[in-house]
Amino acid sequence: MIGQTPGTLRAVKAAKNTNGGPRCREIVPRPAAGAGRGFTLIELLVVIAIIAVLTGILAPAIAMVRELARQATCGTNLRSIGTGLAIYAESKGEGAYPYMPLNGAGWGVEIGTGRIVDGDRGAGQSRNPSATLYLLVREGTCKAEAFVCPSSGERAGTSGDYWDFRSGLNISYSLMMPYGPKRYFEDTSESVILLADSSPYFDPSTGLRNSVAPVNLNGADDEEAKAGNSPNHKGLGQNVTQAGGSTRFVERADVGVDGDNIYTRAARQTDPGGTVPVGGGDVGPAGPRDTFLVP
Predict the structure, then answer these.
(1) How many structural domains does the chain have?
(2) Which helix (DSSP H) or strand (DSSP E) does residue 250 occupy?
(3) Residue 30: pLDDT above 80?
(4) 8 part of a folded domain
(5) Which of 33, 156, 266, 279 is least buried, going by the fewest C-beta atoms within 10 A?
(6) Between 42 and 247, where is the model more confident?
(7) Strand 173-176 relative to strand 247-250: parallel, antiparallel, unpaired?
(8) Structural domain span for residue 132
(9) What 3-state DSSP class applies to 57?
């Protein structure tokens, strides 16, 4: 043809492919694999199920870690109170632990009964043994916060020129019984336990004897022994502090001298579980090696 370049004509024919050969195909890029694709319902349910299983596995472990942290804080509290007892005795120059006097009416009264009764002029009042520990707060030797175990759910009370804690909900710990015909409280050796998490045999809100019978720990396995442990740590055990200041966490209550139950008055001849008196000024530890923690 006039005005047409032979090479151009061949190119056009090839493009049209008039002979019925394979035609040219338009190349359309494919989207990348998975682009714009969301989770299916089944996949989402699988993920939720995995998360639920992991939570169920990890939750107890996390709870245990938290409880161990609370146990450690509780032990620090008791150690500071034990140190406070020694500092108090030294500061008074008499070598005596704090002591709130009471008359023959006994110590079987609610915590806080003598809170506003002067410790000197009110010597004729009945008192709870907790008043003895409050002297450490009154004197500024220990802070009120130190008397609350973080596992107990109790709260620190207000401090000030009082003569006892406001209620049992402001104190989580038990002290060697300071009353009785002889104050073994001051004659103990360093191996005797003076302080621990609160006793299972007293109402935590009042400090009065409850209806729980003393547990016989003689021959009891560790699972059975939990019934005789402090309620502070859900029966798992209790922190204890010896007269020498040593503090540790124990899983049984029969950790006193010669396997003595620290929460009962020794009376193995008549009661293998020991006894827990209801109250009275004439009832104290059975001897210098008997730990009897109240309330």
Answers:
(1) 1
(2) strand 247-250
(3) no
(4) no
(5) 33
(6) 247
(7) unpaired
(8) 64-294
(9) helix
Residue 166, CB-side half-sphere exposure with 13 Å CA sphere: 11
Provide the residue type at 182 as one letter.
K
CA 235/CA 216 separation, integer angstroms: 15
Give the 3-state secondary structure of 157-199.
Answer: CCCCCCCCCCCHHHCCEEEECCCCCCCHHHCCCCCCEEEEECC
Mean pLDDT of 49-75: 85
Q: State the Cα angle at 59 between 56 and 63, rounded to 5°.
A: 155
Residue 139 lies in a domain: yes
Separation between Cα atoms, residue 260 and residue 172, nearest integer Å? 22
What's the CA gap between 141 and 162, in Å, rounded? Answer: 14
Task: Assess contact for 293 and 173: CB atoms under 8 A.
Answer: no
Task: Tell me whether residue 226 is in a domain.
Answer: yes
Residue 57 has pLDDT above 90, yes or no: no
pTM score of the predicted model: 0.76
Q: Which amino acid is residue 173, in one-letter code?
A: Y
What does the mean pLDDT of the chain come to? 81
Question: Which residue type is seen at 117?
Answer: V
- How large is the average pLDDT for residues 220-245? 92
